[in-house]
Design the sequence.
């Protein structure tokens, strides 16, 4: 035995594995049942089992689009159709010399990936409904083309599906092949889901603005999963064509799209087990309820309506026992700012964030009107003023949500381009929001890990295949996020769903998330709003510790005591202009400030 | 050929435009894009054929009953698929709930009416060739609908109340407008407009259950082109789409016309995400 030499690392890995076991067990159970199915039943069940496995190959990819990214792709049967015809046509060789089926599948996957992106293009910039429509439109035209392009697809008569070589040419042989595909796809989609890419997808879905501030590029994220989901759908199509042995456009009814889609919704968003169970149930259901076959679409539709109206969380929410345990009601947030030094490197940039002559209007309202502001590294800069004086707007201009109509922003020597919020994180600017923007359905730890998304080094493909660099990223982000949760005093809540937390705790989560970037500048938008006086004191200590590490802090706040207590510089805004600027001592006695804002 | 393109293009365009207006009418009071828009137009054809041919009613009676039936379906949409999800509009649950209802409508139509296209009666009996009534009827119906809507929105109290709700829901409610009743009324109105689209286009599209899904997409394209909630944009977009589609149909053949429409849709969405006549988005942060 070499157990004596066990290092702390492997011990932590065994612990991680043991923690994963409850999550892994159901998948293992399903796989075990799938493996013994051939020994207990007849060819009829081989057909149903194969079909479920093929559907799952498609759904496992689509799940990332629908369940994780939250984009309602309702016409994915079109990509199945595309894959089925591409594989069949290539293998039959009626346009070019025949291709072996194992070469045709990757080609189909490529075609599917390309079309997956084309159909998804509207989702990159527009509201959900447009994407739903573009997938629906694509589904209608693909069927029309399959019918009309007779020389290639055989039109309404159809075309022979590809045949797989031995040992996959028997019912059970093919079944095992499809199960292998399904298992592989499960593994890949789980890898994506548990990587920074999976978290980023959920972040874009539930807290898009915050995701941008952490540097997540929505288009890039979505294109990656559209490629992946399209490829899997097309592979599923190739397998489906072979199972059917003969395909016509009639084989690809819109019902299938609905089945895929509902399987994910029944399963629940952001889950993999749920949609898998959903797929299996929905594949078997019509077989059990054979007399209702004509009404199957109607039943699916009723099911869809019931899920939407009655249980939006799906199976995954029913199975989520962990988050039903009550939380301690008397918990307190006790940050430990002193530990910050061990986690976040001291900021050495020494650059100043400067705004010169910034102006911005909404319609006829001048929100900011020629503002000059310097935030120096290692200083806390307070920004105060009455409501509507342009404080939050200033933060939004700095973080790129608004492009100023006039004026310049510089960071040290470099110009800070107006707009483009997703580029701020890479320049070392992090922020929090007036209303905390956290992902309610993700755990506290995951929420904090989101903050470090751009620190990850692994590419999407590395994450897909769980290659070492991705595992390193995960360990690094996980450890750092836990440590930062310790700094803000929330480490005991790390595994709790964020939407179960109190408002004040969400504020501290946002700060921890912003610190993941080890920012040179931290923009805090009313961090003390809704906090108790004890919590405000602790917040003050935390902010001071952050600035002592060399970061410049721009603090928008209404609590005058907090501002005067911790700020090095204070700027007072009124109607978008600087009313006064100086040290807290100067501001406190400034005549106009006292009369306009502080009160006598 | 130009005459054929113009005739069929204008006719199809008018139907797409009317479906677009149906979308907009529902959207204006509820901020919901409902998948039932195309189904309402499909039902316009199916109900029309059922009442006049199957049951042998006079055209006018059949027409009125069709509109009534579609209005009822519109109101059902509001009650079943829209009202329950309005509270969480940002989660886009309406996409799913209206899709579910649309599928139910389509499936019932397929089973009860049949899956084959069935004939639609001649309504007036004027004109032949490119001046056949199946080409000019949708255009006339579209024009009358626009004039009627303009009159409603600009000259009547109810219409102004619609406009107020579309403009600013909260302010309208603060003024004491019966927002819920007006929303139900707008869904009934949308049903009527969808019914008119389907009835006037019945001779062109026939009474066919699958028209619903098709019109859902072809009716949405003008909305996307013109900007959500913009009726003028939807009309112009719809006519332009019809002409474009029929031109492609005659010039490069059937399959590629649908490809052309889809490409146009994607390109316009990428180039002008708010539509060609749409307004900029609201603030996000």
Sequence:
């Amino acid at each position: 035995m070499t157990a004596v030499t066990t290092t702390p690392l492997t011990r932590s890995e065994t612990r991680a594995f043991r923690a994963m076991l409850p999550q892994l067990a159901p998948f293992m159970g399903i796989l075990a049942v799938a493996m013994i199915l051939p020994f207990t039943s007849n060819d009829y069940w081989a057909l149903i089992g194969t079909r479920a496995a093929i559907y799952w190959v498609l759904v496992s990819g689509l799940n990332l689009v629908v369940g994780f990214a939250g984009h309602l792709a309702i016409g994915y049967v079109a990509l199945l159709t595309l894959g089925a015809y591409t594989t069949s046509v290539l293998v039959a060789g009626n346009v070019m010399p025949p291709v072996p089926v194992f070469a045709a599948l990757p080609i189909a996957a490529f075609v599917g990936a390309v079309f997956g992106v084309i159909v998804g293009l509207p989702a990159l910039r527009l509201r959900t409904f447009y994407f739903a429509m573009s997938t629906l439109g694509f589904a209608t035209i693909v069927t029309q083309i399959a019918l009309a392009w007779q020389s290639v697809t055989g039109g309404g008569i159809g075309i022979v599906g590809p045949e797989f070589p031995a040992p996959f040419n028997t019912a059970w042989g093919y079944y095992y092949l499809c199960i292998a595909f399904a298992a592989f796809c499960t593994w890949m989609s789980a890898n994506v889901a548990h990587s920074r890419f999976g978290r980023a997808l959920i972040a874009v879905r539930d807290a898009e603005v915050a995701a941008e501030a952490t540097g997540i590029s929505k288009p890039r994220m979505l294109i990656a999963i559209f490629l992946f989901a399209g490829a899997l759908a097309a592979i599923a199509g190739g397998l489906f064509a072979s199972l059917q042995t003969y395909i016509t456009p009639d084989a690809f009814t819109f019902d299938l799209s609905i089945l895929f889609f509902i399987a994910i919704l029944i399963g629940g968003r952001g889950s993999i087990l749920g949609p898998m169970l959903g797929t299996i149930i929905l594949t078997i259901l019509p077989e059990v309820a054979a007399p209702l076959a004509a009404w199957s679409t109607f039943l699916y539709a009723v099911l869809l309506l019931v899920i939407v109206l009655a249980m939006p969380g799906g199976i995954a929410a029913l199975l989520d026992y962990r988050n039903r345990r009550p939380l301690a009601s008397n918990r307190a947030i006790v940050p430990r700012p002193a530990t910050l030094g061990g986690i976040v490197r001291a900021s050495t940039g020494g650059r100043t964030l400067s705004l010169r002559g910034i102006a911005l209007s909404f319609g006829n309202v001048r929100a900011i009107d020629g503002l000059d502001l310097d935030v120096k590294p290692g200083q806390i800069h307070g920004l105060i003023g009455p409501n509507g004086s342009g404080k939050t707007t200033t933060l939004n201009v700095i973080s790129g949500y608004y492009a100023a109509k006039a004026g310049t922003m510089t960071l040290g020597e470099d110009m800070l381009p107006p707009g483009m919020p997703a580029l701020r994180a890479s320049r070392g600017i992090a922020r929090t929001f007036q209303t905390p923007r956290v992902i309610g359905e993700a755990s506290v730890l995951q929420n904090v890990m989101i903050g470090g998304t751009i620190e990850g080094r692994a590419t999407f493909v590395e994450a897909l295949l769980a290659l070492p660099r991705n595992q390193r990223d995960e360990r690094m982000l996980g450890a750092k996020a836990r440590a930062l949760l310790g700094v803000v005093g929330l480490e005991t809540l790390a595994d709790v769903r964020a939407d179960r937390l109190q408002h004040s705790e969400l504020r501290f989560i946002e700060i921890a998330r912003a610190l993941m970037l080890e920012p040179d500048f931290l923009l805090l938008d009313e961090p003390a709003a809704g906090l108790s006086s004890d919590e405000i004191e602790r917040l003050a200590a935390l902010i001071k510790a952050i600035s002592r590490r060399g970061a410049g802090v721009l603090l928008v706040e209404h609590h005058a005591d907090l501002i005067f207590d911790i700020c090095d510089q204070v700027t007072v805004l009124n109607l978008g202009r600087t009313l006064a600027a100086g040290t807290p001592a100067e501001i406190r006695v400034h005549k106009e400030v006292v009369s306009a804002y502080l009160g006598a | 050929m130009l005459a054929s393109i113009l005739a069929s293009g204008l006719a199809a365009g008018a139907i797409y435009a009317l479906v677009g207006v149906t979308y907009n009418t529902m959207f204006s009071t509820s901020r919901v894009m409902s998948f039932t828009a195309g189904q309402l137009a499909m039902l316009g054809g199916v109900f029309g054929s059922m009442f006049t041919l199957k049951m042998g009613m006079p055209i006018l009676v059949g027409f009125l009953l069709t509109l009534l039936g579609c209005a009822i379906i519109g109101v059902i949409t509001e009650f079943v698929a829209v009202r329950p999800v309005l509270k969480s509009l940002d989660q886009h649950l309406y996409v799913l709930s209206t899709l579910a209802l649309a599928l139910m409508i389509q499936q019932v139509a397929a089973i009860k009416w049949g899956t084959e296209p069935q004939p639609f009666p001649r309504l007036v009996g004027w004109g032949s060739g490119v001046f056949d009534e199946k080409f000019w009827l949708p255009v006339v119906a579209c024009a009358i609908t626009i004039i009627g809507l303009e009159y409603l929105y600009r000259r009547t109290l109810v219409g102004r109340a619609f406009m107020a709700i579309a403009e600013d829901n909260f302010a309208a409610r603060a003024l004491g407008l019966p927002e819920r009743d007006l929303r139900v009324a707008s869904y009934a109105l949308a049903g009527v407009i969808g019914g008119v689209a389907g009835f006037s286009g019945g001779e062109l599209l026939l009474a066919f259950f699958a028209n619903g899904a098709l019109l859902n997409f072809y009716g949405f394209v003008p909305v996307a082109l013109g900007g959500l909630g913009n009726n003028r944009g939807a009309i112009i977009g719809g006519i332009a789409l019809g002409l474009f589609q029929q031109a492609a149909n005659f010039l490069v053949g059937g399959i590629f016309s649908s490809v052309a429409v889809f490409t146009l849709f994607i390109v316009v969405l990428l180039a002008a995400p708010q539509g060609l006549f749409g307004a900029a988005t609201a603030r996000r942060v």
Notes: Confidence is low (pLDDT under 50) at residues 1-9 of chain A.
